[in-house]
Amino acid sequence: MSDPVALIIDDEQDLLSLLSITLRRMGVESHKAGNVAEAKSQLDRRSFDLCLTDLRLPDGSGMEIVKYIQDKYGDTPVAVITAFGDPKTAVEALKLGAFDYIAKPIEVDQLKAIIESSIRLSKASPSTPSSRTLLGDSEEMDKIRALINKVARNQAPVYIHGETGTGKELIARLIHEYGPRASNPFVAVNCGAIPRELMESEFFGHKKGSFTGAFSDKKGLFEAANGGTLFLDEIAELPQDLQVKLLRTIQEKSVRPVGEVTERAIDVRLISATHKDLQDMIERDQFREDLYYRVNVIPINAPSLRERPGDIPVLAEHFIKSISEKIGIKAPTMTKEALKILTSHRFSGNVRELENLLERILALHEGSVIDAEDIDLPQASRPSKGAGESASAVEMDGPIDEHLVRIEKKLIKDALKRSGGNITQAAELLGTSFRSLRYKIKKLEIE
After folding, report:
1. Is position 132 within any domain?
2. Beta bridge pairs of residue 80
3. Contacts of 434 (CB under 8 A, 6+ apart)
4. Which residues 6+ apart lie within 8 Å of 275 measured at CB?
5. What are phi and psi of 227, to 5 degrees?
6. Residue where a domain stops, chosen among 268, 303, 338
7. In this structure, are strands 269-274 and 60-61 parallel, antiparallel, or unpaired?
8. What's the rounded Cα separation, in Å, for the pair 200 and 186?
9. What are phi and psi of 15, to 5 degrees?
10. Domain check: are 171 and 62 in the same one?
11. What is the 8-class DSSP label of residue 238?
């Protein structure tokens, strides 16, 4: 197999020499260009496995080269060399299609990491198989899948916005698995689940003895994900002081563990997500605007299930099959009437709520068919007016799953009260079966 070939573009001979020597030591052949015109000429004459370009060139900008490569040679990864302390230009280059950037003065370790990433990227298959899949035949899901395939080959930060239960982590994992980092770690963390006093240590690591309880050196999440992808779920939960440190880590591509004097270079692709409105949080001074623009280079919106009800039958079939295999039963089929009830329901908890609902149904189901009467919705389409009114009295407070449980519990209690404690009559009022209601009463510990 022939060595990879790189095109390096800069008008500074010292920098060209540094780049050429580093590439040669890594087994990469290099060709040089001193300006935009010469670079385009070489790109048109032969193919390259990667391209490194300065942004300031005698006859134009490196941005022009990034766009030229994207338009004509989209499979060639291009990284840009930016001036120190110029994050806006770096973000602009990433948005145009550059897969990465490095700031002057160039650190050799960071340069090597970029070169290794670009070589992996140029050799990676655009359709790397994954055991996961994003289900749905709707136009919304077709767009998401196309976007995943496109951004997987880019190394720019991705920001996924969507309601709870829409599959934000699945989208992040697919981006990782379809890209050149697939064989390296994917580290997922829920920012809201880390105790405030441990956040800095968890993210950046610590040195032994740096604080009470630090009995040994510990790698942080960034170092654990080195070479791979770090997924920050619910990034909106980060406190302001950690937002500042996260911004510096993204810009400098290095971390300084608690108690350490020196920084350590890292090579991590960052994907973040939240169900909150970050722009609204910026206006209320709860989230840093400069951090927002660094993590939101490539935005992806995860659609709610209400926006794609036509995907519910496909999702339901998938969950019924997988849950049935898990509990060791033959997967039942679902009638048209049952599917109609599902597709007309507003799933506030999205795909996760649908999966939980089907899991509850299958736990008690007997027979080969799931019919309309088996669909045990917290807010069924068939309850009496009184029961429906009682549901609206439960105010939204806390996570959606807990909110739905409270609604369900109140509906059942109201129905039991109106039926004088008769479970059969209460089940009729709620539009469910005696067996399902009895199970619910026991599970929810209703007296």
Report:
1. no
2. 53, 101
3. 423, 424, 427
4. 161, 162, 163, 164, 234
5. 85, -10
6. 303
7. unpaired
8. 20
9. -70, -40
10. no
11. S
The pLDDT-based confidence of 6 (bands split at 50, 70, 90) is: very high
Domain boundary among 123, 154, 171: 123
pLDDT tens per residue, range 138-176? 999 999 999 998 888 778 899 999 999 999 999 999 999
Residue among 205, 235, 208 nearest 220 (CA): 205
Say if residue 157 is in the same domain as residue 276.
yes
DSSP 120-155: HHHHS-TT---S------SHHHHHHHHHHHHHHT--
Q: Are residues 298 and 321 in the same domain?
A: no
| Among candidate residues 294, 246, 280, 286, the one with its CA nearest the CA of residue 266 | 246
Its domain, for residue 330, covers 306-375
Indicate whether 296 and 332 sit together in one domain.
no
In degrees and rounded to multiples of 5, residue 268 shows phi and psi of -130, 135
**What average pLDDT does the segment 409-419 reach?**
84
How many domains does one find in the chain? 4
Q: Do 150 and 227 have their domain in common?
A: yes
Q: Is the peptide bond before 105 cis (omega within 30 degrees of 0)?
A: yes
From first CA to last CA, the distance across the chain in angstroms is 73
> Phi and psi for 199 in degrees, rounded to 5?
-60, -50
Describe the strand order of the beta sheet including 29-33 as a list of residue ranges: 29-33, 5-9, 50-54, 78-82, 100-103
Report CA-CA distances (Å) from 243 to 167, 370, 376.
25, 49, 43
Residues 286 and 164 in one domain: yes
CA angle 192, 397, 169 (to 5 degrees): 40
Q: Is the model's pLDDT at 125 over the cut of 80?
A: no
pTM of the model: 0.75
Selection from 435, 430, 432 nearest residue 416 by Cα: 430
Question: Within this chain, do residues 160 and 256 fall inside the same structural domain, yes or no?
Answer: yes
Neighbours of 46 (CB within 10 A): 9
Eight-state DSSP code of residue 233: E
Average pLDDT of the residues in 323-338: 91
Please tell me whether residues 420 and 392 are part of one structural domain: yes
pLDDT in tens, 236-255: 999 999 999 999 999 888 89
For residue 446, give the CATH number of its domain.
1.10.10.60
